[in-house]
Write the structure tokens for this entry.
Amino acid sequence: MICLVVFIVTLAALVLTKFDETAIVLLSMSICAIVTYVIGGLSFSVVLGYVGWDTILFIMAMMIIISVLGSSGMFQYMALIIAGRAKGDPKKLYIMFMSLVFLISLFIHPLPTILIMGAFTVEVCNGLDIDFRPFLISEAVIANSGSIATPIASIPDMIIVSIAKMDVGLMFIVLFPLSLILLVLTIVYFLRYYRGAFVPSPTLATTDLFMVEPSVMIRSRFDFYVSVLALAVLMTGLVLIPSESAIVGLLVAAALLVLSFDRAKELLNRLSWDTVFFVVGLFGIVAALEATGVVEDLVYALGVVGGTNVFVAIIMMIWLPGLVLSTMDNVPIAALLAPTVAQGTVLGTLSPVVSQSLILGVNASVYVVPFGDAPNYIVLDIAERNRRPITWTVFTRATFPLGILHLAIATIYLFGVAMLL
């Protein structure tokens, strides 16, 4: 009970306080370790045995791969080509940019996706005298909703896939069509919501943007081709041996570091070590909950509620993280709920759609009630620095109805898939 209280207080602190997230979870992990030792008689090494180190190593490997991929300038190159093809038509530019964000989000976490595309989007929109705010808000939604189809697209995906031992091939077959449906719905929704913003500027013909050669954006052609090959190998390995995702990820990441030669140390220094230690601390807390039986009780409780009804289980896995727990960080929610849909559990044996529903729920939660998620803060920061601020009220008013619509459509879609499987 003490460890459970620590976990709940940690979630509240992540949402409500200004303390560093990594510091909070490491402190909470330490408190849980002391509690399990003093009261439960469990040594720290025993608790660490419950930590999903394979998942942590997989996440680190993905960060290395993303670092190499981002350093090539491939996405900026594609964005500039799109801007030229659109010829400044705001609607056409919007559709093309959202499609590109969707493509990136299949392989890269929402945070680097926004970092890669956000600043460049502002530059292109300013060059064409277009309001960039509808673009940024839409990109924040699509970066998350587009990440549901692949196991490497977000940290919650990696956690759920690794812990639940999901079949990533089936996951892609089921969730990729849903992600396309949500993409089209998002584009149609925002084109209507911001219909007054997509008006061509009279100064369009004088812009210098179309005179920029897109190839100048590619900083390293070698990294570009190596990254494309690495992604192909990675996805093939994850489909063929999904249970050994950590080995596949480490192999590809290590090969990329070797081929980076003297840049390997630089790429490792650019690794988001605060995120790594955040995940370690988070997994440490969940390990304490598992060692003390809390996770087992949660698995049992949700199994009782879901029973043998796959449709009730789908609703729980979509709407519990997607709406009820949406004010909390989706990474700890994914770590807490993933064991409940693992193979061998009551919910996990109902249908593979149940674990896929959890993936949808944790990814959608960050824009249903968008407080506290890092990509959303980046969007607000970019807008503020470019003198067209976006308030939380404006952001939420635009995304909340769409988020609820996404959850409803996903529920109906996954109901249909469950009846077919």
User: Anything to note?
Assistant: The radius of gyration is 22 Å. The chain has 21 helices and no strands. The first helix runs from residue 2 to 16. The mean pLDDT is 82.
